[in-house]
Design a protein that fits this description.
The protein is mainly alpha-helical and 199 residues long. The protein is built from 8 helices and 2 strands. It has a two-stranded antiparallel sheet with strand order 1-2. It is globular. One of its GO terms (molecular function) is transmembrane transporter activity. Pfam families: ECF_trnsprt. This is ECF transporter S component.
């Protein structure tokens, strides 16, 4: 039975805690037009996947989803939270954020060593991860809400168009800034690359 290295466990724990705190404190929701909010709760999942691979992203997504379910069941903040007591809405979509982000990151990055990647391509890979991970969350959660009949598809489509692109853009920007900064710190400390990502 494979055991995660201490580094991956630590990263998963820290980023999971950040995602949970952002949800509990509501700091992970940025006010948007018409009283709606743009969420950045998926960002720690994306960053974890980029830094440490899809399994770590999967674990962070699992803990993020479980915290969302528990919060909806124990301390709901509105009528929408009732829907998130269903794990197929609150948990399952979040499991796929990390693997989707990691796959897009690796697809754009290619198989070269990190220190051999041009800065523009590396930035593009981080942006792709941020966009893809966020859109995975948006599309799957909203689709689940529609399939289970919590909201009409017309409303879901409106929310997707109104919030989806903004959430994806913000996620991409935060992912780019944080991971690029972390990479520069790693190089300054003499590390040749972030880590050995899982194949």
């Amino acid at each position: 039975m494979a055991v995660l290295p201490v580094r991956k466990i630590a990263v998963a724990g820290v980023l999971s805690a950040i995602a949970i705190v952002l949800g509990i404190t509501r700091l992970g929701f940025i006010p948007w037009f018409s009283g709606a909010s743009v969420t950045i709760l998926q960002v720690p999942v994306i960053i974890g996947a980029v830094l440490e691979g899809p399994l770590v992203g999967f674990i962070i997504g699992l803990l993020f989803g479980l915290s969302s379910l528990l919060q909806a069941a124990i301390a709901p903040t509105g009528p929408v939270d009732v829907a998130f007591t269903n794990p197929l809405i609150s948990v399952v979509p979040r499991l796929l954020i990390g693997p989707a982000a990691w796959y897009l990151y690796k697809l754009v990055l290619g198989r070269k060593e990190l220190n051999q990647i041009p800065p523009a391509r590396y930035s593009a890979a981080l942006i792709a991860a941020g966009l893809g991970g966020s859109l995975t969350n948006t599309v799957l959660v909203l689709s689940a809400l529609g399939l289970f009949g919590f909201f009409p598809w017309s409303l879901i489509f409106t929310v997707a168009i109104g919030n989806g692109p903004a959430e994806a853009a913000v996620s991409a920007a935060i992912t780019l800034i944080i991971v690029a900064a972390y990479t520069r710190i790693g190089h300054a400390m003499g590390k040749s690359k972030l880590s050995k990502l899982e194949e």
